[in-house]
Amino acid sequence: MNRREIVLAPIVHVLGARPNFVKAAPVIGALRAAGAEQAVIHTGQHYDERMSEVFFTELGLPEPDVNLGVGSGGHAEQTAALLVGLEKEFTSRSPALVIVYGDVNSTIAAALVAAKLRIPVAHVEAGLRSFDMSMPEEVNRRITDQLSALCLVTSPEGIGHLADEGVPVHRAHLVGNPMIDTLLANLGSFDTGRVREAHGLPERYVLATMHRPANVDEPETAAALVRHLHGVADLADLVIPVHPRGRANLLAAGLADHDAVHILEPLGYIDFIAAVRGAAAVVTDSGGLQEETTILGVPCLTVRPNTERPITITHGTNRLVSFEELVPGVRKALESGPVSADRKPPLWDGHAGPRIAEVIMRCLGE
Predict the structure, then answer these.
(1) What is the overall mean pLDDT for the chain?
(2) Hey, what domains does the chain have and what are their CATH numbers?
(3) Sorting pLDDT into bands at 50, 70 and 90, what band is 3?
(4) Does 211 participate in catalysis according to the annotation?
(5) CB atoms within 10 A of CB 80
(6) pLDDT, tens only, 86-115
(7) Catalytic residue among 13, 75, 170, 211
(8) Contacts from 133-142 at CB under 8 Å and sequence distance 24+?
(9) For 141-172, how does the pLDDT look when each residue is reduced to its tens digit (9 = 90+)?
């Protein structure tokens, strides 16, 4: 394959879950501006319209060229379906490069298929580490980085993690955080008042999102979590858009059995971040929300023993808490009020997409 063929072959983006769409939007836009031919494969890992299709509309993403529709299932079942579907797509499209995002099952499946077909992979959000191999996401991100020709890193510590794991220095590029590009580009659209009115929310509330397997998959753990969330609701109204994962266990544990708990269906990107922006505090086990609250200046309590995003603690609003520390942590956050968002992590400036496009186009040209 000569250089002209490499440049003209498509760049294929593989998107599987809602955070992928938020990260991909500025990258796709910047590559479009650079004249790259692109294709988007939506794996259907998030198959509910509120978890995927609405994001394409709100973020100006192109309609997917294909939706594999793999749906839900166990890790083995879902990953097997992804491997089969992606192999067919890559074989027929012969991409110059496959771009994957984050750490979901779609990410590792696409990287594995591309590597075996000898197609180079670029991993956006490379180098993040929780050092907790009990997390499926940690397994996915570590293996994806080993298979990637380009490791596109969101924060400085990621460069060190990749070096420690033997990734050659020329493969790692500190580019900043494209999720923050999307946040900053849409700041004017996050109308908290409109969202409060649409969903009947009070003026002052804590917003929660919980979906990690360690917190919601086991009924006994989910019940303990619900008890502590009810403790938060004793302090302030608790607004919780319930993720499909864990919904049954959380509701069975009585999540709705508190007058100050407001259960919502999953929200689109604009409405969700508007709700986050208006919250007195956020309780979460999400990765991306730790980053978004850092920029918005909203106190964030992450219900996990570790985070792959420590920069949100050193440069942001985030704090790790156990179940037992949750209520005291929220009480302190409510008493302290908003947090300054002036100290932003390096390169979280709204220009990660163009930097990523520059690295990719330069490498394809070479």
Answers:
(1) 93
(2) 3-177+348-365 (3.40.50.2000), 187-336 (3.40.50.2000)
(3) very low
(4) yes
(5) 14
(6) 999 999 999 999 999 999 999 999 999 999
(7) 211
(8) 134/214, 135/212, 135/214, 136/75, 136/105, 136/213, 137/103, 137/104, 137/287, 137/308, 138/103, 138/308, 139/108, 140/103, 140/104, 140/105, 140/107, 140/108, 141/102, 141/103, 141/107, 141/308
(9) 999 999 999 999 999 999 999 999 999 999 99
